Amino acid sequence: MLNKKEFLKYASRLAFPIMIQNLIGTLVNMADTVMLGYVSQTAMSASSLANQFTFILFCLYYGMAAGTSVLCAQYWGKGDKKTVEKILGLAERISLIVSAVFFAVSFAMPTTIMKIFTNSPETIASGGEYLRVISFSFVFMGFSQVFMSALRSIGKIMLPSVTYIVSLCVNVICNATFIFGLFGFPKLGERCLSQRVQFCPEPGNAEEYRV
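^ thats the sequence. predicted structure below, dont judge the formating
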Protein backbone atom coordinates (compact mmCIF):
# COMPACT_ATOMS: atom_id res chain seq x y z
CA MET A 1 0.00 0.00 0.00
CA LEU A 2 1.39 3.38 -1.01
CA ASN A 3 1.41 6.25 1.45
CA LYS A 4 0.21 9.70 0.41
CA LYS A 5 3.65 10.98 -0.56
CA GLU A 6 4.49 7.91 -2.66
CA PHE A 7 1.06 7.97 -4.31
CA LEU A 8 1.41 11.64 -5.31
CA LYS A 9 4.87 10.96 -6.71
CA TYR A 10 3.64 7.98 -8.72
CA ALA A 11 0.56 9.87 -9.95
CA SER A 12 2.71 12.82 -11.03
CA ARG A 13 4.96 10.52 -13.05
CA LEU A 14 1.90 9.31 -14.93
CA ALA A 15 -0.02 12.58 -15.17
CA PHE A 16 2.77 14.87 -16.42
CA PRO A 17 3.51 12.93 -19.65
CA ILE A 18 -0.23 12.70 -20.36
CA MET A 19 -0.52 16.47 -19.92
CA ILE A 20 2.33 16.94 -22.39
CA GLN A 21 0.64 14.56 -24.84
CA ASN A 22 -2.61 16.55 -24.66
CA LEU A 23 -0.70 19.80 -25.16
CA ILE A 24 1.03 18.38 -28.22
CA GLY A 25 -2.31 17.26 -29.63
CA THR A 26 -3.62 20.80 -29.24
CA LEU A 27 -0.53 22.24 -30.92
CA VAL A 28 -1.02 19.86 -33.86
CA ASN A 29 -4.54 21.16 -34.42
CA MET A 30 -3.43 24.75 -33.97
CA ALA A 31 -0.73 24.32 -36.62
CA ASP A 32 -3.29 22.83 -39.03
CA THR A 33 -5.69 25.73 -38.52
CA VAL A 34 -3.05 28.45 -38.87
CA MET A 35 -1.61 26.98 -42.06
CA LEU A 36 -4.99 26.40 -43.68
CA GLY A 37 -5.91 29.99 -42.86
CA TYR A 38 -3.14 31.09 -45.22
CA VAL A 39 -4.57 28.93 -48.04
CA SER A 40 -8.17 30.20 -48.20
CA GLN A 41 -11.31 30.61 -46.16
CA THR A 42 -12.98 27.91 -48.24
CA ALA A 43 -10.23 25.42 -47.43
CA MET A 44 -10.58 26.10 -43.70
CA SER A 45 -14.38 25.88 -43.82
CA ALA A 46 -14.32 22.66 -45.87
CA SER A 47 -11.95 20.82 -43.54
CA SER A 48 -13.80 22.10 -40.47
CA LEU A 49 -17.19 20.93 -41.75
CA ALA A 50 -15.82 17.55 -42.84
CA ASN A 51 -14.44 17.09 -39.36
CA GLN A 52 -17.94 17.47 -37.90
CA PHE A 53 -18.68 14.05 -39.35
CA THR A 54 -15.39 12.49 -38.27
CA PHE A 55 -15.93 13.88 -34.76
CA ILE A 56 -18.73 11.33 -34.35
CA LEU A 57 -16.25 8.57 -35.09
CA PHE A 58 -13.68 10.04 -32.73
CA CYS A 59 -16.24 10.13 -29.92
CA LEU A 60 -16.80 6.41 -30.46
CA TYR A 61 -13.03 5.88 -30.35
CA TYR A 62 -12.86 7.84 -27.12
CA GLY A 63 -15.58 5.71 -25.56
CA MET A 64 -13.85 2.49 -26.57
CA ALA A 65 -10.47 3.79 -25.40
CA ALA A 66 -11.86 4.93 -22.02
CA GLY A 67 -13.65 1.63 -21.40
CA THR A 68 -10.57 -0.34 -22.42
CA SER A 69 -8.38 1.73 -20.11
CA VAL A 70 -10.61 1.14 -17.10
CA LEU A 71 -10.79 -2.62 -17.62
CA CYS A 72 -7.10 -2.99 -18.47
CA ALA A 73 -6.06 -1.01 -15.38
CA GLN A 74 -8.33 -3.15 -13.20
CA TYR A 75 -7.03 -6.49 -14.40
CA TRP A 76 -3.43 -5.29 -14.67
CA GLY A 77 -3.59 -4.34 -11.02
CA LYS A 78 -4.78 -7.86 -10.21
CA GLY A 79 -1.88 -9.30 -12.20
CA ASP A 80 -4.17 -10.94 -14.76
CA LYS A 81 -2.24 -10.17 -17.96
CA LYS A 82 -4.11 -12.71 -20.08
CA THR A 83 -7.42 -10.96 -19.45
CA VAL A 84 -5.79 -7.63 -20.31
CA GLU A 85 -4.72 -9.09 -23.66
CA LYS A 86 -8.24 -10.41 -24.31
CA ILE A 87 -9.81 -7.03 -23.48
CA LEU A 88 -7.39 -5.19 -25.75
CA GLY A 89 -7.94 -7.68 -28.58
CA LEU A 90 -11.72 -7.37 -28.32
CA ALA A 91 -11.56 -3.55 -28.24
CA GLU A 92 -9.30 -3.49 -31.29
CA ARG A 93 -11.66 -5.77 -33.24
CA ILE A 94 -14.62 -3.54 -32.39
CA SER A 95 -12.66 -0.45 -33.44
CA LEU A 96 -11.82 -2.07 -36.77
CA ILE A 97 -15.48 -2.85 -37.44
CA VAL A 98 -16.59 0.68 -36.55
CA SER A 99 -13.78 2.17 -38.65
CA ALA A 100 -14.75 0.01 -41.64
CA VAL A 101 -18.34 1.26 -41.49
CA PHE A 102 -17.29 4.92 -41.36
CA PHE A 103 -14.71 4.34 -44.09
CA ALA A 104 -17.35 2.86 -46.41
CA VAL A 105 -19.73 5.77 -45.85
CA SER A 106 -17.05 8.48 -46.14
CA PHE A 107 -15.45 6.99 -49.24
CA ALA A 108 -18.69 6.15 -51.08
CA MET A 109 -20.64 9.37 -50.54
CA PRO A 110 -18.50 12.21 -49.18
CA THR A 111 -20.42 14.93 -51.03
CA THR A 112 -23.73 13.67 -49.60
CA ILE A 113 -22.27 13.98 -46.11
CA MET A 114 -20.99 17.49 -46.83
CA LYS A 115 -24.43 18.59 -48.06
CA ILE A 116 -25.73 17.99 -44.52
CA PHE A 117 -23.53 20.81 -43.23
CA THR A 118 -23.46 23.36 -46.07
CA ASN A 119 -25.09 24.46 -49.34
CA SER A 120 -21.96 25.98 -50.85
CA PRO A 121 -20.93 23.97 -53.97
CA GLU A 122 -17.28 24.97 -53.61
CA THR A 123 -17.14 23.97 -49.95
CA ILE A 124 -18.96 20.70 -50.67
CA ALA A 125 -16.52 19.79 -53.45
CA SER A 126 -13.45 20.69 -51.40
CA GLY A 127 -14.71 19.01 -48.22
CA GLY A 128 -15.81 15.92 -50.12
CA GLU A 129 -12.31 15.44 -51.52
CA TYR A 130 -10.83 15.94 -48.06
CA LEU A 131 -13.26 13.47 -46.46
CA ARG A 132 -12.69 10.79 -49.08
CA VAL A 133 -8.92 10.85 -48.62
CA ILE A 134 -9.03 10.99 -44.84
CA SER A 135 -11.35 7.98 -44.70
CA PHE A 136 -8.34 5.72 -45.36
CA SER A 137 -6.86 6.75 -42.00
CA PHE A 138 -9.83 5.66 -39.88
CA VAL A 139 -8.56 2.12 -39.27
CA PHE A 140 -5.16 3.39 -38.13
CA MET A 141 -6.72 6.04 -35.92
CA GLY A 142 -9.02 3.57 -34.18
CA PHE A 143 -6.22 1.09 -33.57
CA SER A 144 -3.80 3.70 -32.23
CA GLN A 145 -6.32 5.39 -29.93
CA VAL A 146 -7.33 2.16 -28.22
CA PHE A 147 -3.77 0.84 -28.04
CA MET A 148 -2.25 4.05 -26.66
CA SER A 149 -4.98 4.38 -24.04
CA ALA A 150 -4.39 0.79 -22.92
CA LEU A 151 -0.66 1.47 -22.60
CA ARG A 152 -1.27 4.54 -20.46
CA SER A 153 -3.69 2.64 -18.22
CA ILE A 154 -0.99 0.13 -17.26
CA GLY A 155 1.69 2.76 -16.71
CA LYS A 156 3.50 2.36 -20.04
CA ILE A 157 3.74 6.04 -20.98
CA MET A 158 7.02 6.30 -22.89
CA LEU A 159 5.76 4.96 -26.23
CA PRO A 160 2.67 7.23 -26.31
CA SER A 161 4.82 10.24 -25.35
CA VAL A 162 7.42 9.58 -28.05
CA THR A 163 4.65 8.94 -30.59
CA TYR A 164 3.02 12.29 -29.79
CA ILE A 165 6.30 14.20 -30.14
CA VAL A 166 7.18 12.54 -33.44
CA SER A 167 3.61 13.13 -34.66
CA LEU A 168 3.87 16.86 -33.95
CA CYS A 169 7.21 17.25 -35.73
CA VAL A 170 6.20 15.23 -38.79
CA ASN A 171 2.83 17.00 -38.95
CA VAL A 172 4.24 20.53 -38.94
CA ILE A 173 7.02 19.74 -41.44
CA CYS A 174 4.74 17.87 -43.86
CA ASN A 175 1.95 20.44 -43.58
CA ALA A 176 4.26 23.36 -44.34
CA THR A 177 5.90 21.47 -47.20
CA PHE A 178 2.76 20.32 -49.01
CA ILE A 179 0.25 23.05 -48.16
CA PHE A 180 2.56 25.79 -49.46
CA GLY A 181 4.52 23.68 -52.00
CA LEU A 182 7.95 24.09 -50.40
CA PHE A 183 11.19 22.42 -51.60
CA GLY A 184 9.78 21.84 -55.07
CA PHE A 185 6.80 19.74 -53.94
CA PRO A 186 3.32 20.38 -55.38
CA LYS A 187 1.06 22.84 -53.59
CA LEU A 188 -1.88 20.77 -52.30
CA GLY A 189 -3.72 23.19 -50.00
CA GLU A 190 -6.40 21.50 -47.88
CA ARG A 191 -5.75 18.14 -49.58
CA CYS A 192 -2.43 18.05 -47.73
CA LEU A 193 -4.15 17.73 -44.34
CA SER A 194 -6.19 14.74 -45.41
CA GLN A 195 -3.15 12.99 -46.89
CA ARG A 196 -1.03 13.83 -43.85
CA VAL A 197 -3.61 12.30 -41.55
CA GLN A 198 -3.80 9.20 -43.72
CA PHE A 199 -0.11 8.42 -43.28
CA CYS A 200 0.53 10.06 -39.91
CA PRO A 201 -2.70 9.99 -37.86
CA GLU A 202 -2.41 12.23 -34.86
CA PRO A 203 -3.14 10.78 -31.44
CA GLY A 204 -5.23 12.66 -28.92
CA ASN A 205 -8.23 12.67 -26.67
CA ALA A 206 -11.83 13.69 -27.31
CA GLU A 207 -11.09 17.40 -26.96
CA GLU A 208 -8.49 17.10 -29.71
CA TYR A 209 -10.55 15.13 -32.17
CA ARG A 210 -10.45 17.77 -34.87
CA VAL A 211 -8.15 16.49 -37.54
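The mean pLDDT is 77.
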